[in-house]
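Bug: token stream looks shifted between consecutive jobs. Job 1:
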Amino acid sequence: MRARTISICQGKGSIAHNNRAFHTKNTDPARTKDNIVFVREPIGEAYDKLFSAAVERYNAKQKRSDRKIKSGYFEYQFGQPVTETKLTSPDKRKSFYEYLIQLGTMEDTGVGTEAAEKATACLCEYMKGFAERNPNFYVFNAVIHLDEKTPHLHIDYIPIGHYSRGVSVQNGIAQALKEMGYGTGKNAIAKWRQSEYLVFRRICEEQGFIISEPKKSRGVSFTVEEYKEIQHEKERLTEELQPLREMNLAADETSVAGKKQFLSNNISVSPEEFEKLEQQKKAVAIQNIENQHERDNIAVRQKLLDECEAEIAVREAESLSRLTERSNELDVRESEVVKIEERAMSALNDADAEKRMAAVLVSDAKKKLEYADFKYNEQLNLNRNYSALQNKYCILEKERDRKASELVNLRYAVGISPTDKETDPVQKITAIRDENSAIKRKLDKELRLPFRQQKSTATLEMLDMVLDKFKSRIAETDKELEESRSVIAKLKEQLSFIKQEFVKVVLAVNTLVYSDKYCRGLSGLSKALATGISFFTDSTFKKLGEYDSINKCAIDDEIRENMSHFIEPEKNRTSSYYER
């Protein structure tokens, strides 16, 4: 595989060019869509994110308002509003820095080739680890250009430094390199570039690329970036000469004939305009004379550049010649070393053959011993496993018997006889559980316990509580029954007394109706009414069942005694009344 170079340099810092806000002659706009954008953040937002908090802390500490930073940090540091153009502050700080890295050239790694695709993959992998390797470099814009001749990576970053005086976080490349461990002074940036070069070189070599060393000649080193600077200077001078060439061409093409000149088929100029053109032509002629001196100066500078370029080519040729001679010397020495090594290897091979034979025999014996040890250990493991399995089997048998006994006891407990094979114990237990749940719900309803007490109280305890409650109710009912019996006895006595008095009333009415002695003044309707009351009361009293148990003679005497105060008897009552 052809060796390739690694180009690492500091870019010009044109964000508009990197983001293709405009196209130059070395870009292909049709392939701009293939560019790989890693990050594209406006620089103003990046500065606010990095430094606004530090500026606020700085302003909070200031007692004088004239020392406070009233504008943003960017304007405070660089003296003008945020812009994407790279600015330099009075203390030589850059508003941002650009880092450009490339593998190979357009001759060996041109866009569209397989090598270019692998180089792009290397650049992508390198970019993924850039922020982790450089925590003090904040990348706000990064893109791989694939619309130019060779893939290359642009990284635009802001260096972050931390300070004890002034704003605590500032834009500072020296402090950022120091905090990342690259020291101080002019060598810090060189150490950092060398570190990044080695990282990218390792990535490329892992992808199969061969990396060539930078070329040197007669103590002077011309890197790729230096060569590119020379080429850029040549292009700049060419661009400066281009307007002068166009002016010469315009002057040469302008010709005047007569007072009127036809510039095209349909356009003519007046005498006044013709006079103006004559004056302009003279001015152009004078300008050409002045520009000739400038072109001569530019030609001298270009000649010097061509001489530098030729000197570079000579140096490269001399370096290549010396490298070729050195390579031939190394080839001769290498052939001598190879011959010595061959003789030594021949002697070593004979000794190694005998050693290998002995080693083979020893190896076979060792293998047999190892195999025997392996088999012996395997048998021991099998014996131990067999004993362990036997113990587990005995334990399982005991467990099985215990479970069978528990199952029989459980069947007895739920009321299933051993001969009953149809009843499912699970269904029986489920039914019992449902019944217990129903009983518990009824007990809960009867007791009306609080929810927490219901959860903590067992069913049997609740049943005992219900029984105690029923016993208390029965005792209260017995007490109420005794009281009711006492009342009933009193009522019975009163009823017996009332019955006797009622009998007396009945007999008195009968005496008025049937006794000739007391039947006075009753005639017609009154006698009929008294007779009806007598029959009604007599039949009612007989229905009560106590008519025959009353001493009628004693009652009659009492009635007559009480009635004698109101009615004087005409004659004595006969005993036939009581025989009715």
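Job 2, same session, no restart:
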Amino acid sequence: MKKPMRIISLLLALLLLCSCGGAGEAEPSAPETPDEQTAEQPAEVSNEGEDVPSEGEPDSIQPSQMELLNSALVPQADEDAYRTTYEVFVYSFYDSDGDGIGDLGGLTEKLDYINDGDPASGDDLGCTMIWLMPVFPSPTYHKYDTTDYMDIDPQYGTLEDFDHLLAECHARGIRLILDLAINHTSSEHPWFTTAADYLRSLPQDAEPSVEECPYVDYYNFTREAANGYAQVPGTSWYYEARFWSGMPDLNLDSEAVRNEIAEITGFWLDRGVDGFRLDAVTSYYTESRLDSIAFMGWLTDTVKSQNPEAYLVAEGWADQGTYASYYESGIDSMFDFAFADGDGTIARVVKGTTSASAFGEAMESEEALYASYNPDYINAPFYTNHDMARSTGYYAWDDGSHTKLAGALNLLMTGNAFVYYGEELGMKGSGKDENKRAPMYWTEDADAEGMCVGPQDMESFEMKFPSLETQAVDSYSVYVYYRNAIRIRNSFPVIARGATAVVEEMSDKEICAFTRIKEGTDLEPVLVVINASEEAKTVPLSGDGADYTTLSAVLTVSEDQVALAGDQLTLPAFGIAVLTR
């Protein structure tokens, strides 16, 4: 039924465009009456020749207003780093060899789910960049403790498998970035084991010699016990290991270490990798933010000298003022922690503990803050990641409406927006880290081909919302909502690239209205109006929003529809409208 329904959707979308205008029109088409313009679905649609649900069957496979209107949008090709990025934990994504562990071959098989390379298909999620959590050899399931930075962990495949994945990504217009944890290595890395063996071989009071063992300079060794340090077994020596003893911190002041890092980044960039996600940058120098920023500046310069188009995004888990200052390094992006997690701006707005207008105001404020450190910054908004409880658990008794709205808020922010795998399905997972990295919920059948078993210590729990298999044919599912939100983001390039300006006349505790404009370009400006309440709201188009008269895209959480009549915009509960001039 999927393809016939898509045909119906396209036909209905054409009918809708006659009444509400398209994304690229300068003026709306004439409505049936002089003062009324709506995006309502036609009352009667012939299904002759098509499968029609019988009485008692769910009608959720019928196209929603959201699908009908948004199907006419045309996603634009991304030629820069303002993208929509999908974070993948390979271990739990898709298994191609039957061992229960996800691998690069499995991810390659599922690339069409992320992006099939055809903007017109509408069958894919639409993400245009992939962030791979660590894929290098490691003794742990999470692989943030590396033993070889220039190879692939055997659980995931080979370098040849990686090259094939990369080629398939590029063929679809997907860029790929690697997770690079260089604050520390594994204690099983040859650099560390060689240095530890050398220290064990020294007489008790002898001092190590870099000439005899260069690797003793790769780490921060000392004879003094201190917090954040672990003892080298069998010696009186200690080494810095701020996370745990299995992750010895590198000495980033060492010229030899910096040469190694430059060789590593060059190795992957030469293979065609599009950039790196930098892990734990605020821990580069635990006691000195300025030294951490300076090192990140060196790393940014090094990578850009190897490939000026390479993209860098860094994790600086700190308050906004602190991670904003890291933009002084010249890095492209810093993850925007202020908006993320269960107590971030997005969740507070969705819960109603923060006014809707505060969402727009916070975006305005941070855009000025980041630009003050680096005018060429690219924000990296995200809602959840592998270290955070999944968002479905943030909202008690949620029927999916809150989860959907929160996902949209993230995707309507500027910059390169990140989506953690499974969030588009409303997957669950909280508590220990393993629970947050559960198998991708392709199907309810845990024994189905390709399904992963998940991390060994993951607890058993049931998902709140159905699997992709079910959600893909439900017009009101979390998945279909996310797919539409990404399509809107990709179809209006100004959403990612423009500047936010709150329309105060239209905004209040429950409504957030803002324009997104990129001065000096031909990018079409938009007005975004968000109803963050559980009741329908009618908002007059006023202030700087009065010029936006074409209803070009919508996001709805139910069958209730968005309507524009004259200058009166009606939004259903949790509804969102995108208007153009």
